[in-house]
């Protein structure tokens, strides 16, 4: 099984600021990584797939990067609606999909 | 806009069958481009894949749950279902349904339901 590790567990940022979230995998997955935003009581929302491709309707303030085993989600100009839990998913086709444990992005 | 909504009992007794449905609106479950999937998140733990089904009946199940799980698709009612037999307290979790799409690297959920908490009690 590919283990996915996210860091940090919690990130406190002021509105208008920037956030950088990390996701690492224990095996090479090329760019088979997706990022999601999950606010309490709502459905998870796809932000990024294929490591760096924004999903439809996602603003350019959200950007993904990385390949292989190390990936980053960057969010700039944080808005009130951006706060919540972010999780990553590795979906390399030859292995079962596995998720990171999530990063809680909170208002500072 | 595709929307998914889980429904089913919130409480299940141990050894009984956990059954959930996922109603899909705003999109067709008949499309061959997607898989229809179930995930769950036990309290304090990471999300995990349970299984998926395609319109042609192909299924893919988590190895750890394969002996107890059945996922089926009802194209006439635009819904798909999860059955997990012989429930134990370890099956207590928030259950999510999702639509999965594929790319060069594999497949990933692009739309999710809000999730429903199922508690298995003895």
What do you see in this structure?
The complex is a heterodimer of chains A (108) and B (122). Chain A has 108 residues and is mainly β. Chain A has strands spanning 4-7, 10-13, 19-25, 33-38, 45-49, 53-54, 62-67, 70-75, 84-90, 98-99, 103-107. By secondary structure, chain B is an all-beta fold. In chain B, the strands form two sheets. In chain B, strands 2, 4, 5, 6, 9, 10 and 11 form a seven-stranded mixed sheet that branches. A four-stranded antiparallel sheet of chain B has the order 1-3-8-7, with no helix packed on it. Chain B starts with a strand and ends with a strand. In chain B, 39% of the residues are buried. The chains are: A mainly beta (108), B mainly beta (122).
Give the tags:
heterodimer; A: 108 residues; mainly beta; seven-stranded mixed beta sheet; four-stranded antiparallel beta sheet; 11 strands; 0% helix; B: 122 residues
The helical percent of chain B reads under 10%
The parts of chain B where pLDDT drops under 50 for at least 5 residues are: none
Write the H/E string of chain B, N to C. EEEEEEEEEEE
Number of strands of chain B: 11
What composes the largest sheet of chain A? 7 strands, mixed
Assembly state? heterodimer
Greatest interface (CB-CB under 8 A), with counts per chain: A-B, 27 and 21 residues
Distance between the termini of chain B: 40 Å
Name the overall outline of chain A.
globular
Average of per-residue pLDDT values of chain A: 96
Mean pLDDT of chain B: 94
Shape verdict of chain B: globular
For the record, give the distance between the C-alpha atoms at the N and C termini of chain A, rounded to a whole number: 36 Å
Q: Write down how many β-strands of chain A occur, each being a DSSP E stretch of 2 or more residues.
A: 11
Count of DSSP-assigned helices of chain A: 0
Q: Pairing-aware structural class of the strands and helices of chain B? A: mainly beta
Compute the gyration radius of chain A: what is it?
Answer: 13 Å
User: Segments of chain A where pLDDT lies below 50 for 5+ residues?
Assistant: none
Backbone structural class of chain A: mainly beta
